[in-house]
Amino acid sequence: MERVFSIERRPLLSDCAPSGRVRLDALARWMQDVAFCDVEDAGVEDAAIWVLRRHRIRVERFPRFGERCEVRTFCSGLGRMWAERRTTVTLLDTSGPLATGGAQPPLVDAVALWVHLDPVRLLPSPLSEAELAVYRQSAGERRVNARLRHPRPEGIESRWRWRFRRTDADIADHVNNAAYWEPLEDELLGRDGELTAIDAEVEFRAPAQPGPKLILASGARRWITEPDGDELYASVVLSEATLG
């Protein structure tokens, strides 16, 4: 039987922009939460530490303050030492002007590539038979790899400073992956009009510590770098952003 796991979430005060829509970093946290809850529910949470390599989020319509949502996830592809996870966010509220009757289409569709680390050596390691038994059927024949796809900084048109706070660090003692969406969210909040839809992807290269960073920009691309060095922590591709 194919495994699909879900939790309920509602955008509340700390998750929402001033307009009432959920922020991108909050959506990313929901997707981390459902991924961990899935491996925990499957009984394989101690088999590995999963590190996020790439995360693409496509929003057709942002969940808004107080709306009940279902966050559903399943393994959509496997590699020797990594796996792909697909996650959707669907509105559970079935009353009011947004109701359509029947099954609700996803508001958000996301895909993430996770690297499988040995919990002791903290190095990439093959998935165990127990993990494959849980996720092989939903992944089917789809094979994935962890190669980097985004280029290094090039053709820089603008740059600005950013600071990750100490409160952005998680139990792994580095900046949590959801916090990497904050610079993009901050940039979009500064534009005229309300963000209504988006398609963006973040690729993670190296773990960052709290402190000052430099954002480099060229067209639809962004890079999060060390201000006084060559270290590249993450890159962003903004394929679409619709302002209403």
Written account of the structure:
This protein is α+β, with helices and mostly antiparallel strands and 244 residues long. The chain has two domains: 5-139, Thiol Ester Dehydrase, Chain A (Roll), CATH 3.10.129.10; 158-243, Hotdog Thioesterase (Thiol Ester Dehydrase, Chain A). The chain is 16% helix and 37% strand. It has three helices and ten strands; from the N terminus they run βαββββαβαββββ. The protein has helices at residues 24-42, 129-139, 182-189, and strands at residues 5-9, 49-59, 69-78, 82-91, 106-117, 158-164, 195-204, 211-218, 221-225, 232-243. It has a ten-stranded antiparallel beta sheet. A hairpin with a 2-residue loop joins strand 8 and strand 9. The chain starts with a strand and ends with a strand. The relative contact order is 0.18.
Q: What is the tally of beta strands?
A: 10
Rg value: 18 Å
Overall pLDDT confidence: 94
Helix content: 10-25%
Oligomer: single chain
Spatial ordering of strands, largest sheet: 1-3-4-5-2-7-10-9-8-6
The tally of structural domains comes to 2
Q: How many angstroms separate the termini?
A: 42 Å
Give the number of helices: 3
In this structure, how is the largest beta sheet organized?
10 strands, antiparallel
CATH class of the largest domain: Alpha Beta
CATH superfamily caption of the largest domain: Hotdog Thioesterase
Estimate the global geometry from the Cα principal axes.
globular
Low-confidence segments, given as residue ranges, are 96-101
Order of helices and strands: EHEEEEHEHEEEE
- Beta-strand percentage? 35-45%
Task: Fill in the CATH topology of the largest domain.
Answer: Thiol Ester Dehydrase, Chain A
CATH architecture of the largest domain: Roll
Pairing-aware structural class of the strands and helices?
A: alpha+beta
